[in-house]
Design brief:
The chain contains eight helices and two strands; from the N terminus they run αααββααααα. The protein is mainly alpha-helical. The longest helix has 18 residues.
Length: 162
């Protein structure tokens, strides 16, 4: 299974927005420049986060984005589904019919591979739900000094809108 780079980007977007003072916003351009990622792709990600209610969008000249809730209320599964979608990670082609008899005669019972993948998906969901973004930020703070990030946010928020 391959998870898109959008998941990592969306986590960092939320972590950045969590550091923005209440009532302030950051533009998607500022965030994409900070993360050194494609602005068009980041806009798509932020739109997904807004759609899922994880990020607020403020339109207008002084508009931008802000986090909609505390990092203690956002888990990795919520971010995962916002970016990757809510569909199943495995959709069987039901090749069992051809594997067993070489043809689809309607007598097939269950797709054993689907059963296994359903279990994998359930375990993935439980694992992702158990990790809060506040835990990720705490782990980052244990390793890195995030004062530079906070100073950058202060500078960007203080800049007059262009």
């Amino acid at each position: 299974m391959k998870i898109s780079s959008g998941l990592e980007q969306s986590i960092y977007v939320l972590l950045i927005l969590s550091r923005v003072p209440q009532g302030e916003t950051l533009s998607s351009i500022a965030i994409s420049e900070r993360l050194d990622v494609s602005h068009s792709y980041l806009k798509k990600i932020v739109k997904s986060l807004v759609h899922e209610g994880l990020v607020n969008s403020t339109p207008g000249k002084n508009g931008g984005f802000s986090i909609s809730r505390s990092l203690n209320e956002i888990n990795l599964y919520q971010v995962f589904t916002a970016v990757e979608g809510k569909g199943r990670i495995f959709n069987s082609q039901y090749l069992i019919k051809d594997f067993i008899e070489g043809t689809d005669n309607g007598n097939e019972k269950e797709c054993v591979i689907s059963q296994v993948m359903d279990t994998v998906e359930q375990k993935l969901r439980i694992s992702l739900q158990s990790v809060l973004l506040s835990q990720i930020l705490a782990n980052i703070k244990d390793i890195y000094d995030i004062d530079k990030l906070d100073r950058w946010i202060s500078d960007v928020v203080a800049e007059p809108a262009k």
